[in-house]
Every structure is written in structure tokens, then in C-alpha cells.
Amino acid sequence: MHDTPARPSRQKDTPPESPLHLTPRTPASPALGRRDLITRAAAIAGGAALIGAADLARPRPARAVTAPRVYTRAEWDARPPTSPATIIKAPDHLIVHHMAFPNSTDYSLAHAFQLSRDCQDLHMDDNGWSDTGQQLTISRGGFVMEGRNRTLEAIGQRKNVFGAQCANENGHTLGVENEGTYTTELPPAALWDSLVQTLAWLCDLYGLSASTAIVGHRDYNSTTQCPGDALYAQLPRLRSEVAAQLGAAAPAARTAAVRRSGLPGPRTLGDHGPAVGAADPRP
Ligand SMILES: [Zn+2]
Question: Which domains are delineated in the chain?
Fold first, then answer.
């Protein structure tokens, strides 16, 4: 495990005022195994097919996407950044990561908040960054949290912040880090459902297509298997489920068989591949 230095009391981050009117989501569902995940996914796909058939009979109205409840930095007790994040243009791609943290079976909100603090400590104290690198974090219990400072402010303006999550691509991408390591295991259903909802919200907000905008870290940085071979193989299903939430024609949800990519997996806690490159400013 990664040892973080003892910190007597965490200095509070800026106040929690969120620019967004976020709709509280239902409490995270209990974690389910892989078979449950697949069964649920199949049920969702079946439902989407029925809705699709009904929609053929009339013009399709814009479907409202429910925003996830995003816990603010103040709520998870973030440290202030050593320098404020820069707000940049809207992202054109949404990057799915695994955090290369343990696959914890603690699905509580308290654990989710601790996860965000641990990740921030790693990024600031070990990597020497000004703040946590990714824009959003999702725990295995399905709790969605703001990552880098000013992220919710930027999203509220349909913009983005300069993050540190995908080397040389930080100027045009938004990163979602998912708790766990998915080289062989799949995320629990609670995380999966929140990831679908979060990506649908972002695609809707930024006017992005689920079929082209959602990518894995390895699609840009070929020296990592992030988000893990197992989760990467599920990206077609992820795009399909997000498209269904958006009311768009869902691409075929065929997933690749989980196989070893031969790409490097995590070597240390939190190592999910290059997050900063020569083309990026100091994070
Ligand atoms: Zn990654």
C-alpha cells in the first residue's frame, strides 16, 4: 500500500457552492458480481430495444438526461490546490480510466471520500502536482466526486479544466477515474451504473456522441492497458448504454472477449499510465 505522510489536519478547500443544480441520485445499489452486471446490462439492452421500437412510431423528443449527484471537493474535504486550475475549452473526448487502486469491498460514502483524499495526496505529495489530476472520480460504491479544482465550475460553463490524466491529451479531454483495477475483474454494478449516467450527462452537456467520444486511456497512450483489459473490453457496451440514455440509436453492444493485451498494467498504487506529457503544462 501507498503510505501517505501523517497530516494533522487537512486544510479546507474553497466553499462548496456548486454552479450546477445537480439532481440527487438514488443511493448506490449494492455491489453485484460480474454475472449480475452482465444480466443487468442485458436487461437494460432489452429495455432499450423496446423503447427504440416504440419510438419509431413518432418523432423522437429530446430525452432529458438526469445529472448524477456529484459530491464537491468541500464535501470530501479536499486540500486546496497549490495553484488554481486553468479553465479551457469543452472536451472533445471523455477518457475512462481505472485508478489502479485495490478493488475495495467498502462501498460506503465515507470510503469514497477517503479514496478522493488518498488520490489527491498521491498526486500532490508523490507526483508533485498542484492538485488531483482527473476531473471526476467514481467509487466502487457508485459515488461520483469532483476531482481537480474548478471542475464543476468549468462544467457549469460547458467548459473543462486542464487536468493531468492522459499524457499530451490533457488540453482537449476530460478524465473519469474509476476506483479499482480492472485488468481481469469488472467493476461492480453500482460503479458501472454511475459511469453510464456520468458519461450520458457529459455527452448531453457537451453535445458529444457516445459512440465516438468515449475512449479508454490506452487509446491515446499505448504504453498502458488502462482502464484494464477487462473494462476496456466493455467499452462498446458502455457506449451503447450511454447512447441509450441519450435516446440516440445505440451502436451494437458487442464487446471484445477479455484477453491479455500485453500492455503494461499497474506497477504501483495509482499507476495507470502516463498522465502528463511534454505537450502538457506543468500540472
Ligand atoms: Zn488511465
Answer: 69-246 (3.40.80.10)
Q: What SS3 class is residue 15?
A: coil
Ligand 1: centre distance to CA 246 (Å): 25
List Cβ neighbours of 87 (8 Å cut-off, separation of 6 or more): 150, 153, 154, 157, 159, 160, 161
Confidence (pLDDT) at 160: 98
**pLDDT at res. 175:** 98
Q: What is the pTM of this model?
A: 0.79
Helix (H, G, I), strand (E, B) or coil at 215: strand
C-alpha–C-alpha distance, residues 92 and 172, integer Å:
6
**Distance between Cα 176 and ligand 1 center (Å):** 9
pLDDT at 62: 55
Is a pLDDT exceeding 50 seen at residue 164?
yes
Predicted local distance difference test score (pLDDT) of residue 39: 37
Alpha carbon of 105 to ligand 1 centroid (Å): 21
How many angstroms does the Cα of residue 165 sit away from the middle of ligand 1? 6
DSSP 86-119: PEEPPPSEEEEEE---------SHHHHHHHHHHH
